[in-house]
Amino acid sequence: MAAQRIENLHLNGLISNLCVVAARTNPDSPHAIGLFVVEEGMEGFKRGRKLKKLGLHSQDTAELFFQDVKVPIANVLGEPTQGFRNLMLNLAEERLSGAVGYVTRAERAFEVTLAYITDRKAFGRLIGTFQNSRFKMAEMRARIDACWALVDHCVMEHVERKLAAETAAAAKLFSSESKVGWSTNACNCTAAPAIWTNTNLPPVCRRSYQPHLRGTSEIMKEIIGRSLGLDERKRFEVSGLLASGCGRFNLSVATKLKN
Fold first, then answer.
1. pTM, rounded to two decimals
2. Are 34 and 23 in contact (CB under 8 A)?
3. CATH topology classification for 7-87+247-258
4. How do the domains of the chain map onto residue ranges?
5. CA triplet 102, 145, 207: central angle to 5 degrees?
6. Which is more confidently placed, 235 or 179?
């Protein structure tokens, strides 16, 4: 098979020796997706430039180009029409791992901010003693505790192999939005020190503002909403939508194939 020319942006694009390409194998079926191993050195597979990012500096994001890449049969993973189902196998676990990271970052931002506002003064008073600061800290303490409770519940469900996709989506949605919201509150409570590089706040806030991986909040809302029966489409289509943004592999590129 040979692939049309396509450009895509992916993590580990410069350092990986191979990438797993999720490609449509039947143009008449939206779920007929195959997984193909594209190896370094294959004709038509080229790497582009490394892109600058707000965060995640330990992982490069690079352009990948595919021009009439020929993939041998031996490089097909599983059935050529069952790629979506394979991508869906560990999505709940993946989103749970994301939720753990988000709530941990929110907890760290809370700790750093609390230490600052109980040490620095403004207008002769500790910053933390102002009503606005107290209210913001109280609100976020309650929100972070709620995040931990939901994440802990999901962990126990996952250990028992009972974790549902919509429950994992709810954990990721709530924790990721809480992380971003708390970063904003941290900047408001501390003002200028939030951007001073000689304090602990800039890296904490910067990491919290990173784009949501493993699916956007809108995708998480779709999954939760459809689990309530609020959509006419089949449940498989919900999972398919989720799988299209999967980051389970080092690289996954969506393209179309032609004979």
1. 0.70
2. yes
3. Butyryl-CoA Dehydrogenase, subunit A; domain 2 (2.40.110)
4. 7-87+247-258, 89-228
5. 20
6. 179
- What confidence tens digit (pLDDT) does each residue in 40-95 have? 888 888 887 887 776 667 777 888 888 888 889 999 998 888 888 888 888 889 89
The answer to whether the CB of 219 falls within 8 A of the CB of 241 is: yes
- Strand bridging mode 45-50 / 121-122: unpaired
pLDDT in tens, 134-162: 898 898 899 999 999 999 999 999 999 99
- Written as one letter, the residue type at 57 is H
For 105, the 3-state DSSP assignment is helix
CATH code at 89-228: 1.20.140.10
Residue 29: pLDDT over 70: yes
Q: Which member of 94, 139, 160, 218 is catalytic? A: 94
Contact at 8 Å (CB) between 219 and 176?
no
User: pLDDT value at position 237?
Assistant: 44
Whole-angstrom Cα distance, residue 209 to residue 99?
A: 14
Q: Which residues contact 60 (CB under 8 A, 6 or more apart)?
A: 11, 12, 13, 14, 15, 50
Block residue for tokens 């709620």: 146
Non-local (6+) Cβ contacts of 254 within 8 A are: 8, 22, 23, 24, 244
**Residue 94: active-site member:** yes
Strand ranges for 87-244 from DSSP E: 121-122, 125-126
Q: Which residue's structure tokens are 């931990």?
A: 148
